[in-house]
């Protein structure tokens, strides 16, 4: 994936500086073994504090807690009805912190997902246990590849800070289109809810839906992705009916 164009370290203001560095091994670009270093921090979410272990450095950039996670968490608290009684899939879960928060705060039926990588999956499981939570179900999925669940039944797909990777837009569109177009409802009656968009307007939303946090730093970069979702692919009609994009 294409790396973000700004430093991650500069974004962690306010986090506790106590680090629990742990070493594991990963293969470098030339096959040599390299130590994986972790930093364990305490982060404030609405109404609670979570302990989150992040990679200090990871080749997939999949285990950092970005600012959009916190603003999206706040927005979801204000629009809790979007989650009530629904099965949720998070794309690009990274550390798993947002999913852990939603599970602990509201008991949300949520599944995490990120790049097909064992270290990312193991770290999400670690963070669940570190916050006294049973390990959440997880799907290892590389955007654009065949999805492991042939008939998706998640009512809402959420994501935060995943649109930094411009070169991955086509792959992301393929994954989101599949999740929306092949959706089969499970276990509850379909209903339409209203949520508050970024302008404060009440708008209707119906499952399946895709809701993402478009970080203010990357607002312009998100427009090509939105256009691609709205203009093409088998899931474009569903996306047009139910996309909810939150911006700060």
Question: How are the SSEs ordered, and which strands pair?
Answer:
Layout: E1 23-27, E2 33-45, E3 48-55, H1 67-78, E4 87-90, H2 97-106, E5 109-114, H3 118-130, E6 138-140, E7 156-160, H4 169-181, E8 192-196, E9 202-206, E10 209-214, H5 219-231, H6 236-242, E11 244-247
Parallel strand pairs: 4-5, 4-7, 5-6, 7-10, 10-11
Antiparallel strand pairs: 1-2, 2-3, 8-9
**Category from helices, strands and their pairing:** alpha/beta
Strand content: 25-35%
Compute the separation of the termini in Å. Answer: 25 Å
What is the CATH superfamily classification of the domain at 79-247? Vaccinia Virus protein VP39
Q: Radius of gyration, Cα only, in angstroms?
A: 17 Å
- Average pLDDT metric: 74
Poorly predicted ranges: 1-33, 215-221, 234-242
State the CATH topology of the domain at 79-247.
Rossmann fold
Q: Which range best describes the helical content: under 10%, 10-25%, 25-40%, 40-55%, 55-70% or over 70%?
A: 25-40%
**Known CATH architecture of the domain at 79-247:** 3-Layer(aba) Sandwich
Shape type: globular
Quick synopsis:
This protein is of the alpha/beta class. It contains six helices and eleven strands. A six-stranded parallel sheet has the order 6-5-4-7-10-11, sandwiched between helices. A three-stranded antiparallel sheet has the order 1-2-3. A two-stranded antiparallel ribbon has the order 8-9.
Descriptive overview:
By secondary structure, this protein is α/β, with parallel strands linked by helices. It has a domain at 79-247: Vaccinia Virus protein VP39 (Rossmann fold). The chain is 27% helix and 26% strand. The protein is built from 6 helices and 11 strands. The protein has helices at 67-78, 97-106, 118-130, 169-181, 219-231, 236-242; strands spanning 23-27, 33-45, 48-55, 87-90, 109-114, 138-140, 156-160, 192-196, 202-206, 209-214, 244-247. The strands form 3 sheets. Strands 6-5-4-7-10-11 form a 6-stranded parallel sheet, sandwiched between helices. Strands 1-2-3 form a 3-stranded antiparallel sheet. Strand 8 (192-196) and strand 9 form a beta hairpin. Helix 4 (169-181) crosses helix 5 (219-231) and helix 5 crosses helix 6 (236-242). Pfam families: Methyltransf_16.
């Amino acid at each position: 994936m294409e790396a973000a164009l700004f430093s991650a370290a500069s974004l962690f203001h306010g986090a506790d500086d106590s680090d629990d560095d742990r070493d594991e091994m990963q293969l470098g670009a030339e096959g040599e073994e390299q130590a994986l270093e972790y930093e364990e921090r305490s982060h404030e979410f609405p109404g609670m504090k979570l302990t989150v272990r992040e990679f200090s450095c990871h080749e997939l950039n999949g285990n950092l807690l970005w600012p959009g996670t916190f603003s999206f968490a706040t927005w979801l608290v204000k629009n809790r009805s979007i989650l009530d009684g629904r099965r949720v899939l998070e794309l690009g879960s990274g550390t798993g912190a947002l999913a852990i928060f939603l599970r602990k705060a509201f008991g949300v039926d949520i599944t995490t997902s990120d790049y097909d990588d064992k270290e990312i999956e193991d770290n999400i499981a670690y963070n669940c246990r570190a916050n006294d939570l049973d390990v959440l179900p997880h799907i290892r999925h590389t955007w654009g590849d065949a999805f492991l669940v042939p008939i998706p039944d998640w009512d809402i797909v959420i994501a935060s800070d995943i649109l930094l990777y411009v070169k991955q837009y086509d792959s992301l569109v393929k994954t989101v289109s599949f999740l929306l177009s092949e959706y089969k409802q499970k276990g509850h009656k379909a209903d339409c809810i209203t949520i508050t968009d970024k302008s404060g307007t009440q708008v209707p939303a119906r499952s399946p839906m895709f809701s993402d946090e478009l970080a203010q730093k990357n607002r312009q970069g998100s427009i090509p992705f939105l256009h691609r979702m709205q203009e093409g692919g088998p899931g474009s009609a569903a996306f047009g009916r139910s996309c909810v994009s939150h911006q700060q």
